Amino acid sequence: MKKNASHSHRLSFLYAMIMTVLTYLPIFIVAVYSFNAGRLTSVWEGISLDWYKKLFSDDDILSALGNSLFLGIASSLCAAILATSAALTLPRSALPCKKGVEVLALAPMIIPEIVLGMIFLAFFSLLGLPFGMLTLLIAHTAFGIPYIYTEVRAALVSLDTSIPDAARDLGAGPLRAFFTVTLPMLFPAILSGMFLSFAMSFDDVIISIYVTGVSVNTLPIKVYTQLKTGLSPEIFALCTVMTAVVLLCTGTAALIGKFRKRKGY
Fold it and tell me: Tell me, which fold does domain 58-263 have in CATH?
């Protein structure tokens, strides 16, 4: 039994190592070559920060960065309001099909992005909305909702309902009890979901291509269009920055999740 357990442990460790290498080796190579002094990506000519300096002095890149930051923050805030409202009201509603509504709320996590992008394209065309920041904001809000909804629903399951009830018994109205008791207890879950939603928005390219306008660029779209002209260390630098932002957001969400578990909500 001990030999079988040891053999199984080695196989699990080997599998984990292979998956880790396959996942992170390409990211590591891109990050290393973003510091290449030469322009050719196939030849290493020494360490340099010139490509990062050029990257952050490019007006088009800075404009795309501003669009991505605004889009990620605004869509996360909108998704947080909608997802939190749904998580609080849906379980208490008398709708006979509320389970189906909950499944629909999580659908953007399951539907392939290319299909979702085509759905948004057809929907916005039917409404006659001009493609640009507004359509991007609506689309990013829609696919960001499930990430916040799942976090808030999980927090509500472990929420001690006696605390808000005690606030009501002490004379607090429904709104005051919500904003002074319930919302602070749910805030870590909302914040964790918002970081995940921001990360998904910040690196989305497929849906954004379908719903953006000719005058609005985001960083992922900028990377996609520049790749058509060939690889360069500047693109590697941009990809490294984007990867660092996404890893920071997902890592922060994970830390908030650990904090929630430690505090019991």
Answer: MetI-like fold (1.10.3720)
